[in-house]
């Protein structure tokens, strides 16, 4: 497997995408997780579970602090992806969904997180191609990732 660290990768066509299969791209820059950003995420989603938004109560928990929502980690995927790979040469690209999403470890407030992506496959679908990639979100100083997901994107080549 070849790692690609010159970012962002800029495929110009489907053949360029196919050449990325099996390659790991990244990592992104580090992103600091703040209580303010987690609180804002809680407000948007309506998920105000205390382990995310109540530092005093969370301090008494086995984790000792508030932690980001698992979906907060996953929601960083699109922005992280844009910094890893550019689809500017394509007519359009769409997020088609996720499969096999897991949150193996917590993401404490004050941590830093980043992502790598591995292109798993490029499959031809009506109107374009589907890109399947494994996104791995790692917390600085932790051996276990905080999130791992297979993302699906649909792309249409420019004419």
What percent of residues are in strands? 35-45%
Number of domains: 1
**Which fold name fills CATH's third level, the topology?**
Thiol Ester Dehydrase, Chain A
Distance between the termini: 32 Å
**Computed structural class:** alpha+beta
**Radius of gyration from the CA trace?**
17 Å
Q: Average pLDDT, to the nearest integer? A: 95
CATH architecture: Roll
Q: Percent helix among the residues?
A: 10-25%
What's the total helix number? 6
**What is the H-and-E element order?**
EHEEHHHHHEEEE
Give the low-confidence spans: none
Report the strand count. Answer: 7
Shape: elongated
CATH-wise, what's the superfamily? Hotdog Thioesterase
Largest sheet: 7 strands, mixed
**CATH structural class:** Alpha Beta
Concise synopsis of the structure shown:
This protein has 159 residues and is an alpha+beta fold.
Give a written overview of the molecule.
The model has no long low-confidence stretch (mean pLDDT 95). Strands 1, 2, 3, 4, 5, 6 and 7 form a 7-stranded mixed sheet that branches. The protein has one domain: Hotdog Thioesterase (Thiol Ester Dehydrase, Chain A, Roll). 25% of the residues lie in helices and 36% in strands. It is elongated, with a radius of gyration of 17 Å. The protein is α+β, with helices and mostly antiparallel strands. It comes from Aeromicrobium choanae. It holds the Pfam family MaoC_dehydratas. InterPro entries: HotDog_dom_sf, MaoC-like_dom, NodN-like. This is Acyl dehydratase.
């Amino acid at each position: 497997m070849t790692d690609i660290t010159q970012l962002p990768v800029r495929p110009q066509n489907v053949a360029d995408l196919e050449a990325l299969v099996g390659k790991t791209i990244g990592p992104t820059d580090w992103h600091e997780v703040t209580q303010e950003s987690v609180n804002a995420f809680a407000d948007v989603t309506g998920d105000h579970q205390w382990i995310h938004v109540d530092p005093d109560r969370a301090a008494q928990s086995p984790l000792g602090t508030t932690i980001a929502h698992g979906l907060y980690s996953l929601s960083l995927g699109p922005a992280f992806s844009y910094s890893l790979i550019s689809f500017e040469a394509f007519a359009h690209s769409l997020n088609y969904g996720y499969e096999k999403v897991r949150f193996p470890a917590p993401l404490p407030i004050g941590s830093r997180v980043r992502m790598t992506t591995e292109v798993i496959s490029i499959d031809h679908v009506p109107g374009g191609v589907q890109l399947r990639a494994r996104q791995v979100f790692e917390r600085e100083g932790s051996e276990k990732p905080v999130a791992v997901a297979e993302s699906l994107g649909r792309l249409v080549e420019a004419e």
